[in-house]
Amino acid sequence: MPVTLSAFGLSADEAAELRLEIGFSESVAEIKSQTQPVFEIMHRLPDIDLRDVNLYFFAFCLTGHSGEAQISRLQMRGTHASLGYVFPMTFFRGEAAIDGDWPKRYARVAFHKLIDLSNIANFAPEATLHGFRDRCIFPDEIFPDHLSIVVAGLKNLNDAGIGIEQLKLMLLAQKITILDRYERDPNFYSSDKFSMSVSLAAVSPVIGEDIGVIFQLLRQSDTDTSEVGRFLKLYQLIEYSIEKVYAWSIKALLGMDISSWRLKKKLATITADRSRLGILAAHCLQPTVNRVAFDALAVACRELLGDLGEELEDGGSWHHLLYNVRNIVVHDQIKLIRTPNDFLPALNDALRDACFELTSTLTEPDLSTIWSLPQNEAAIEGTGTD
């Protein structure tokens, strides 16, 4: 069926007049105009059965790894259940070997999902009918060759309990950035090393209704060219988390049989950001949390604070140190400007990793049980320097 999109620099009216459409045969996709061939897009993939392409999720992405052989398998952390693959745009030239039938099937689906007029309109800004007429080209000649594509089985995602918005956030955590539109000079994060297997951590149910907003927030932090701006965006996820802690704390207090004096003391404690950060660190992260990420954040905070001449406590925990940094960024940027340093970018990198740990391990604890234990208040609240 002809599609009237403004691909190839054509207006919608011009495209409608040409009645552009795509037909597939063997290893070729043919771009036609009123049944007359215009040009062809080809691949050199191994011959294998083509699955129903409607049963697969497809998206353009950025990975920083665009070599022909840099294909990544996506799997769930812990279970190793397969979800799909990431293919570089240059992959379809067929010079990279593919081991196993499933990668070959996903690659065939990827080609069929890729060659679409709406994709050409949105992700091939330099494409013109005049430039390609009567030629047979590879996908990376029409689409920018720094792009990659993600293909995931919808059944695989459903079996893992993952929605599309969750998948986008899980991929961003691994520095694979889903694109909704073409960006000529995109700012994004990529892994230092290419990996043939990418393990994705499930998103915490606690943030379920806010996944889309959190994805946008973290994506915006990646594109912010100001390190102060980047810090403030990332810290919003910390604020979001301790707001959850506040709600859980109130809920716990309502269910506890405690004296009015102790209730008053608890309420005073949980209204302080420092205390809620302590509760978050001590009680609101799943056992699977990667503590290395928070240890690295503590080191980065200590380096920045030390360079700014701040007094530091021995053994200060990540949440105390981070809150001190937050106070300087929010209330004393003159100090940051007056003391040029190279520590804030590294701190933001560590904070980014910690934020993604929160998106996967944030959990609601039973604070009423924890607070009922006969322990001293500092340990109970998680406000000690541990």
How would you describe this protein?
Helix 7 runs parallel beside helix 8 (211-223). The protein contains 17 helices and ten strands. Strands 9-4-8-6-5-10 form a six-stranded mixed β-sheet, sandwiched between helices. Strands 1-2-3-7 form a four-stranded mixed β-sheet. Residues 376-386 have low confidence and may be disordered. The chain folds into two domains: 12-202, no CATH class; 210-372, no CATH class. The protein is elongated, with a radius of gyration of 26 Å. The protein has 386 residues and is an alpha+beta fold. It has helices at 12-18, 101-114, 117-123, 129-132, 139-142, 154-159, 164-173, 211-223, 227-254, 260-270, 273-283, 291-307, 318-331, 333-338, 343-361, 367-372, 377-381, and strands spanning 20-25, 28-33, 36-42, 56-62, 72-76, 82-88, 136-137, 148-153, 177-179, 197-200.
Mean pLDDT comes to: 89
Question: What is the string of SSEs from the N terminus onward?
Answer: HEEEEEEHHHEHEHHEEHHHHHHHHHH
- Taken from the alpha-carbon principal axes, the silhouette is elongated
Question: Structural class per helix/strand content?
Answer: alpha+beta
Sheet with the most strands, sense and barrel status? 6 strands, mixed
Distance between the termini: 66 Å
Low-confidence stretches: 376-386
Rg is: 26 Å
List the helices and strands and how they pair.
Blueprint: H1 12-18, E1 20-25, E2 28-33, E3 36-42, E4 56-62, E5 72-76, E6 82-88, H2 101-114, H3 117-123, H4 129-132, E7 136-137, H5 139-142, E8 148-153, H6 154-159, H7 164-173, E9 177-179, E10 197-200, H8 211-223, H9 227-254, H10 260-270, H11 273-283, H12 291-307, H13 318-331, H14 333-338, H15 343-361, H16 367-372, H17 377-381
Parallel strand pairs: 3-7, 5-10
Antiparallel strand pairs: 1-2, 2-3, 4-8, 4-9, 5-6, 6-8
Helix pairs in contact: 7-8, 8-9, 9-10, 9-11, 9-15, 12-13, 12-15
